[in-house]
Amino acid sequence: MGTDDLFKKRRGEKKRRSENIRHIAPYRYLIVCEGEETEPNYFRGVKERIKKVYKDRIDVKSKIELDIKGTGRNTEDLVDFAIMIRSLSAIPYGHVWVVFDKDDFSDVQLTIL
């Protein structure tokens, strides 16, 4: 009978979903390093590799404003510097990383940070 045809008319034809390719770029990253050369150079190398795919969205900042003798000292100021840079940025950062040498701190000191 005609009931089968009526069901097909109500359902209609399935529409094909358009296949749009989306490229997902990461958030902007702020990386504040304790060292003046080694860590920033490492992250600049990472940035160059990522830059080819994700555009220029990683900012590498070196903590050269602190007068530090030796590495791993005054890490609390490093965190404060990262907070200041983030708050002064016109475009917000998706992630803020602070890179320092853990060897100079106990687990208790790191928890306090």
What does this structure look like?
By secondary structure, this protein is of the alpha/beta class. 41% of the residues lie in helices and 13% in strands. Residues 62-73 have low confidence and may be disordered. The chain is elongated, with a radius of gyration of 25 Å. The chain has one domain (29-112). The chain has helices at residues 3-11, 38-54, 75-88, 107-112, and strands at 29-33, 58-62, 95-99.
The number of helices is 4
Work out the strand percent. 5-15%
Radius of gyration: 25 Å
Number of strands: 3
Mean pLDDT: 66
Give me a quick take on this structure.
The chain is an alpha/beta fold.
Question: Which short descriptors sum up this protein?
Answer:
113 residues; alpha/beta; three-stranded parallel β-sheet; 3 strands
Chain-wise SSE layout:
Blueprint: H1 3-11, E1 29-33, H2 38-54, E2 58-62, H3 75-88, E3 95-99, H4 107-112
Parallel strand pairs: 1-2, 1-3
